[in-house]
Amino acid sequence: MSARFEDSTVIVTGASRGLGRSIATAFGAEGAFVFVGYRSREDEAKETLRAMEEAGGRGALLAMDVTSAASMNAAVEHALAARGAIDVLVNNAGVAADELFPLMAEESWDEVMRVNAGGAFHGCRAVVRPMMAKRRGAIVNVASVAGQHASPGQSNYAASKGAILAFTRTLAAELAPRGIRVNAVVPGLLGTGMAKRLDKRIAEKARVQIPLGRFGTGDEVARAVLFLASEEASYVIGQALVVDGGLTL
Predict the structure, then answer these.
(1) What is the distance between the terminal CA atoms of the chain, rounded to a whole angstrom?
(2) Residue 117 carries which DSSP code?
(3) Distance of alpha carbon 138 from the chain centroid
(4) Which of 50, 10, 20 is nearest to 142 (CA)?
């Protein structure tokens, strides 16, 4: 496999496990130096770093709180001091707090919006100026099929992911003239994500609705992220690349 990201510097938020780990490892395997973003799961973040190194990559841990502008600014400044530039940001950090809307606590709404939509905002704000200075950079925001289609019991999560899709389109139009490409990847049900937490009967009901007949993998979504971040997508901006096995057809 060609090293599309040789000597590039990549930040992946929420990279301590699951999809974030798959994305970080995939970048590392293609030559990138990857900062493994995490908030509190340092041991799991170290596991991601080990997996990345075993795949032939290089990187370092990067503590951050995506809900805090000060924390994200400090994390990016640390990365810049160490590497000189940031080529790619993947806003992957996210949470879910599923509840039927009549029962949803205000705190559940606020937390999900703050982490998912707010985290993407703070991440982008932190990297935009150094990327503009280089007139080069790529940002990939991780959304969800819940942001495009109804997902009962997830009104907060759906709203946050829908916000990310709208944010991606407008930010792409603003930043493209400055050399920065912004896109989104839209995962469906993954065996390492929401589907893994579902009751087995509910998970099976969801699985049979997928034309490919199975849940996706983190690696399959990671390949889409790498495409959007690479020069292969040099004429692609503001898009939402759906990776869902046909669930939303």
Answers:
(1) 31
(2) I
(3) 13
(4) 20
Q: Does the annotation mark 38 as catalytic?
A: no
Given the residues 35, 157, 167, 215, select the one marked as catalytic: 157
Query: Look-up: residue for tokens 């937390």?
Result: 111
Going by the DSSP 8-state scheme, the letter that residue 113 receives in this structure is: I
pTM score of the predicted model: 0.95
pLDDT in tens, the chain (249 residues): 458 999 999 999 999 999 999 999 999 999 999 999 999 999 999 999 999 999 999 999 999 999 999 999 999 999 999 999 999 999 999 999 999 999 999 999 999 999 999 999 999 999 999 999 999 999 999 999 999 999 899 999 999 999 999 999 999 999 999 999 999 999 999 987 655 666 677 778 888 999 999 999 999 999 999 999 999 999 999 999 999 999 999
Paired tokens of 143: 């959304």
For residue 78, give the H/E element and its range: helix 69-83
Domain 9-190+218-241 falls under CATH 3.30.70.20? no
